[in-house]
Amino acid sequence: MAVGPLVPLSSAEEQAALRWLAGVAGSVTGMPTELVRFYCHAGPAGGGNFGGEEGRMPSFRELLAKAKAEIVEVDGPEAEARLGGATFLDVREPDEFQQGTIPGAVHIARGNLEVQIEGRLPDKDVPLVVYCAGGARSALAVKTLAELGYLDAVSLAGGFNRWKDEGRPWVTPRTLTPDQRNRYQRHLLLPEVGDAGQQKLLDAKVLLLGAGGLGSPAALYLAAAGVGTLGIVDMDVVDASNLQRQVLHNMDRIGDRKVESAKKTLSLLNPDVKVITHDLRLGAANVMDVISDYDVVVDGTDNFPTRYLLNDAALLAKVPVVHGSIFRFEGQVTVFAPYEGPCYRCFVPEPPPAELAPSCAEAGVLGVLPGIVGSLQAMEAIKIILGLGETLAGRLLAYDALETTFRTFRVHRDPACPACGADAGEIVIAEYDELCMPHPKEAPAAV
User: Fold this and answer.
1) 3-class SS of residue 237
2) Which end of the chain is less crowded, N or C, counting CB atoms within 10 A of the terminal residue's CB?
3) Which long-range contacts (CB under 8 A, 24 or more apart) does 340-343 make?
4) Cβ contacts of residue 199 below 8 Å, gap of 6+?
């Protein structure tokens, strides 16, 4: 309601206005002065009509009746007929939702509706069936939705309680514990993640090849994000020279197995995470068994034979690989999505001569660099798990630390690739030599 300039009231008018306000609000003690002045002018003593014809606030019943007169309500049979075609919106409180809900419903508590609805359901033309426990909150919610531009929203008469009593379908949803809701609160505020996305992360399994420079930051951020299962492959021990960049480890762990050191760090960071250690050298005899149980592989390997071996196994298992590599002050990240984009052999058809690709132990690396590249790998893995945005499949992200520049290059699938091309032969899992040439299915006949 618009109120004109607040002209001074006479003493008698002011006293009458205060008496009216005290009668409506119960008390004016503690009420801000400007708010008191506004109500005094808006009420009947000040010439306004804020409280209705009789100068009083409308009751809840009156507000509800007014809302129901302006919206559309549907009964159980009509609402059930809309399952699969409309979006069902549950506006009850979290504890009510946890006890049961209509299958596939989106949950936004009534108190958060105005703030969250446009982020969670941006399409205002989608048909909505809104429900609460008994039909009151949903009626008010539908009225609010109409004011926000959602014009195809209806309220379920009788709410969820009547829906259950009539024997209609409902489920007990998987929910986060109070501790998890607190831990992942910043994720839950993101409409693109929310409860459903966090559940996906908790259900996901990611394998990290290496607990070193790239594996350390990737593992830390994946664990912090709540990825439920992290597998770590490494057969090395912690050395003092690792600590310049391998932040999973510390001085007290020198001489320990890297996988055990990593497990201790990650378990302390997030008890939700199950850490599976693979203290072994990844080879042809075990690669399929190791990677087949995981949803995503984060590749932190530093030699070409293992990269080509991983590529073959990932194509066979159809497991996406988030590849990262570092050299001195430069890093690269990409995603190899089997048969959807290029594979590693499309990207690097054959390994370069050894003198042109020295290892970090030979050429050195700035310790912060793997932290940046490994974090980008963790981001790509999370995007794959959640189906968010556009991954780096078919693109190579190159980072130059000295120039502080990021450049992106397109990488196309090679139609003649001997690993993933249309005419590629059957993939044979076998150890690679320094040439890393594809293995024929059968050995050539002896001459």
Assistant:
1) strand
2) C
3) 340/393, 341/393, 341/394, 341/411, 341/413, 342/394, 342/411, 342/412, 342/413, 342/414, 342/417, 342/420, 343/311, 343/314, 343/315, 343/413, 343/417, 343/419, 343/420
4) 174, 176
Residue 153 C-beta-side C-alpha neighbours within 13 Å: 26
d(CA 395, CA 416): 19
Strand arrangement of the beta sheet that strand 87-90 belongs to: 73-74, 153-156, 128-131, 87-90, 106-107
Asked if residue 437 lies in contact with residue 305, where contact means CB atoms within 8 angstroms, the answer is no
- Dmax over CA atoms of the chain, in Å, equals 119
Structure token pair of residue 308: 């080509």
* CA-based radius of gyration for the chain: 31
**Token pair of 326, please?**
């570092």
Do residues 427 and 308 lie in contact, with contact meaning Cβ atoms separated by under 8 Å?
no
String of b and e for 385-402 (b: at least 16 CB within 10 Å)? Answer: bbeeeebbbbbbbebebe
Q: Are 431 and 364 in contact (CB under 8 A)?
A: no
Q: Residue 10 carries which side chain, given as an amino acid letter? A: S
Predicted confidence (pLDDT) per residue in 413-426, tens digit: 999 999 999 999 89
Q: Cα 189 to the chain's mean position, in Å? A: 10
Q: Which two tokens stand for residue 140?
A: 């008010």
C-alpha span between 176 and 190 (Å, rounded): 16
C-alpha to C-alpha distance for 70 and 91, rounded to whole angstroms: 19
Convert the pLDDT of each residue in 398-446 to its tens digit: 999 999 999 999 999 999 999 999 999 899 999 888 778 787 765 444 5
Q: Are 235 and 290 in contact (CB under 8 A)?
A: no
Q: 339 exposed, middle or buried (CB, 10 Å; 0-12, 13-18, 19+)?
A: exposed
| Angstrom distance (rounded) from CA 18 to CA 262 | 68
CA distance 118 to 332: 37
> Residue 22 in 3-state DSSP?
helix
